[in-house]
Design brief:
The chain has helices at residues 26-37, 49-69, 82-96, 110-119, 135-142, 167-177, 196-199, 237-240, 248-261, 266-286, 314-323, 343-347, 366-386; strands at 14-15, 76-79, 102-105, 122-125, 151-155, 181-184, 203-207, 218-222, 291-294, 304-309, 326-327, 355-359. It is α/β, with parallel strands linked by helices. The protein has two domains: 8-23 and 265-386, Aspartate Aminotransferase, domain 1 (Alpha-Beta Complex); 26-261, Type I PLP-dependent aspartate aminotransferase-like (Major domain) (Aspartate Aminotransferase, domain 2, 3-Layer(aba) Sandwich), CATH 3.40.640.10. β6, α7 and β7 form a beta-alpha-beta unit. The chain is globular, with a radius of gyration of 21 Å.
Length: 391
């Protein structure tokens, strides 16, 4: 069972935005606090006793992350987060095949899309109305006799609408075509069981804060035999795959969160709880007139649901929920630091300004769902009655 979460939850608030970032797990907080209180210091690249203590902590954390991912520790490269990990994968692939274009769907996270565009030419992979990539289109692109590809990018699951991608088929197609593939695993890892060695993807990026680890730390998992040109230079750290002094405190917290999730039955229990809570959220939302689900509500990650709210702008709904103590998210540009609406929803043919994403995590409970169910309908109806919020 999960530890008591009361101390980790904001007073009288209901947090339904775990897909953006989850609360820090008690196990991670305890490990980081203990490390700081013991005032351990030393360069892990040095052979003295202080350095060896730090090196041991890093490698224990690497083992824990590898165990969660069902891979070997020497494949795990620590980064500053999922964004750096994705950028490292993309720029390494571009360096290995200079001038070759990449394949990337518009539903990919911005850190993938923008990095791919900066690295060179990008061919857009088609998606369906659920945001799922078109496997036939990918097969067509890979079979083109006059094209040589640097990399195929594919998210494991969509971060906005939760749709799971057919990653096993994507990896198989890429391997048979001799094209490397990068999977963005940030929306899946820590929420569903994974077995990276069996999947066989060349590069997998992930972020610790998405499942209760600390922010500012992530990893890139590199398939055996794949050469990784360092994205961050300035030293031989991470087996010469990422320069710079390691974020030891972040790595310690990352390892503790991974170790907690790797406990027998823990991840399965959390998946089941998240699925039940998110289904209840979806039921409560769609019980309101002109509210419909977005994405695939069956083949999805268990912790995210997304709905389109007819007759009112999502930004106004978010503000109404927030005043009632409920945190959620929308694909509207006005609801985040982005200067554009969600390209994910635009690619799906959906109006981003009407979307509302609800996501649960390890600390969520039925009280969060009940608060949303009691509040959402009245907020939407009051806004519709005003009329001025439906522009």
């Amino acid at each position: 069972m999960s530890p008591d979460t009361r101390a980790s939850r904001p007073f009288n608030r209901h947090y339904l935005d775990h897909a953006s970032t989850s609360l820090l797990r008690p196990e991670a907080a305890l490990a980081m606090r203990s490390w700081l209180e013991e005032a351990r210091s030393g360069d892990p690249a040095r052979v003295h006793a202080e350095g060896r203590v730090v090196r041991d902590a890093i490698e224990q954390a690497r083992d824990a992350v590898a165990s969660l991912l069902k891979t070997t520790a020497n494949r795990v490269v620590f980064t500053s987060g999922g964004t750096e990990a994705a950028n490292a994968a993309i720029f390494a692939a571009g360096a290995a095949r200079p001038g070759a274009p990449m394949i990337c769907a518009d539903v990919e996270h911005s850190c993938v899309r923008e990095a791919a565009e900066r690295a060179g030419t990008v061919e857009t992979l088609r998606v369906d109305q659920y945001g799922r990539v078109d496997i036939d289109h990918l097969a067509f692109l890979l079979a083109s006799p006059d094209r040589s590809w640097a990399l195929v990018n594919c998210q494991w699951a969509n971060h906005e609408v939760a749709t799971l991608q057919p990653v096993a088929e994507v990896v198989a197609l890429c391997r048979s075509s001799g094209v490397p593939v990068h999977l963005d695993g940030s929306a899946v890892i820590g929420h569903l069981p994974v077995r990276l060695d069996e999947l066989g993807a060349d590069l997998v990026s992930l972020s610790a804060h998405k499942f209760g680890g600390p922010p500012g730390i992530g990893a890139l998992v590199v398939r055996r035999g794949v050469r990784l040109e360092p994205f961050v230079r300035g030293g031989a750290q991470e087996r010469a795959r990422r320069g710079g002094f390691e974020n030891v405190i972040g790595i310690v917290g990352f390892g503790a969160a991974a170790e907690a999730l790797a406990e027998p039955g823990r991840l399965g229990e959390e998946c089941s709880t998240a699925l039940g809570l998110s289904e209840s959220l979806l039921k409560a939302a769609t019980s309101v007139e002109s509210v419909v689900p977005l994405g695939d509500i069956v083949r999805r990650v268990p912790h995210i649901v997304n709905v389109a709210v007819g007759g009112v702008l999502a930004e106004a709904v978010l503000l109404g929920l927030d005043r009632s103590g409920i945190a959620a998210h929308s694909g509207s540009a006005c609801s985040s630091e982005s200067i554009e609406s969600s390209p994910v929803l635009t690619a799906m043919g959906v109006d981003p300004d009407r979307s509302l994403r609800l996501s649960v995590g390890w600390s969520s409970s039925q009280s969060d769902v009940d608060a949303f169910a009691d509040t959402f309908g009245p907020v939407v109806e009051s806004l519709r009655a005003l009329g001025g919020q439906s522009a």
